[in-house]
């Protein structure tokens, strides 16, 4: 539980109608919030974040990703399935090998922003 101090709360009750109206107007639709929340939950796992980071450099097969991230192929496959469900990665088959890549530039930007923010 996050503790609050007297310094980080209003000392008086006041509402700023224009600010509230602007903030309400800027709120995304509930359906969009649900999808975005699911996406962020998928990225929140350290193993999945490492997989996405590896895929931000190049397309990799499940076996390669397992080695890069240091997990079993079975675990890599499971994590990739979750990332696919969240529409963060896609794959293509070449014979019996499945190659994964990031779905689009938005995923790379999201990953880059998160890692950049963490390094500040």
TrEMBL record:
It comes from the Bacteria. The keyword DNA-binding applies. Residues 28-120 form the HTH arsR-type domain. Keywords: DNA-binding, Transcription, Transcription regulation. PROSITE patterns: HTH_ARSR_1, HTH_ARSR_2. InterPro entries: ArsR-like_HTH, ArsR_HTH, HTH_ArsR_DNA-bd_dom, Metal_resp_trans_reg, WH-like_DNA-bd_sf, WH_DNA-bd_sf. GO terms for molecular function: DNA binding; DNA-binding transcription factor activity. This is Transcriptional regulator.
């Amino acid at each position: 539980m996050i503790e609050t101090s007297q310094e980080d709360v209003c000392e008086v009750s006041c509402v700023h109608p224009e600010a509230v109206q602007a903030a309400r107007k800027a709120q995304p639709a509930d359906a969009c919030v649900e999808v975005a929340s699911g996406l962020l939950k998928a990225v929140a796992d350290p193993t999945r974040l490492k997989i996405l980071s590896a895929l931000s450099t190049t397309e990799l097969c499940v076996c390669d990703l397992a080695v890069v991230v240091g997990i079993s192929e079975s675990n890599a496959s499971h994590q990739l399935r979750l990332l696919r469900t969240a529409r963060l990665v896609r794959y293509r088959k070449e014979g019996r090998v499945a190659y994964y890549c990031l779905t689009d530039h938005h995923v790379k930007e999201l990953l880059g922003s998160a890692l950049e923010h963490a390094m500040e």
